[in-house]
Each structure stands twice: as C-alpha cells, then as structure tokens.
C-alpha cells in the first residue's frame, strides 16, 4: 500500500512541476536548436558545442548572442 502511495506522490509531483513537458522541451532543444543556431549564423559548422562543465547564465548567453549578431551585422 505504501508503494502505491509513493507512486501516486511521484506522479503528482511530475505533473505539478511539468517534468514531462520539460523533458520533451529538452529533447526538442537537442534536435532543433543547433541547426537553428547555424542557420542564424550564431554557430559555425566546426564549432564544438560540447558541455565543458561550466554553468552558463542567461545573461552570459544573451551577451554572447548579441556579440555574435553585432559581428555579423558589422559586415553590412
């Protein structure tokens, strides 16, 4: 009976925190974001996007994207 209760608690937790949606989103990110970055010119073919173990904040990501966009547009 306790196992059933724990399973129910786990299922409720997953639903409450939308874990299934998060996993789906992360899977999509792995499949689609890299090609999109290449299309936008924010990632070159030979650029290595492997995780180096360092955490990247949203601000750091935005700064890097803005820097690359400025580099791209400076040619025009």
Automatic annotation (TrEMBL):
<dbReference type="Pfam" id="PF24548">
    <property type="entry name" value="EF_EFCAB10_C"/>
</dbReference>
<dbReference type="InterPro" id="IPR039879">
    <property type="entry name" value="EFC10"/>
</dbReference>
<dbReference type="InterPro" id="IPR056587">
    <property type="entry name" value="EF_EFCAB10_C"/>
</dbReference>
<protein>
    <submittedName>
        <fullName>EF-hand calcium binding domain 10</fullName>
    </submittedName>
</protein>
<feature type="domain" description="EFCAB10 C-terminal EF-hand">
    <location>
        <begin position="29"/>
        <end position="69"/>
    </location>
</feature>
């Amino acid at each position: 009976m306790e196992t059933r209760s724990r399973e129910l608690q786990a299922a409720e937790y997953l639903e409450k925190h939308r874990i299934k949606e998060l996993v789906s989103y992360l899977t999509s990110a792995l499949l689609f974001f890299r090609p999109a970055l290449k299309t936008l010119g924010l990632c070159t073919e030979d650029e290595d996007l492997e995780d180096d173990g360092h955490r990247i904040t949203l601000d750091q990501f935005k700064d890097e994207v803005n820097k690359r966009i400025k580099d791209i547009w400076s040619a025009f």
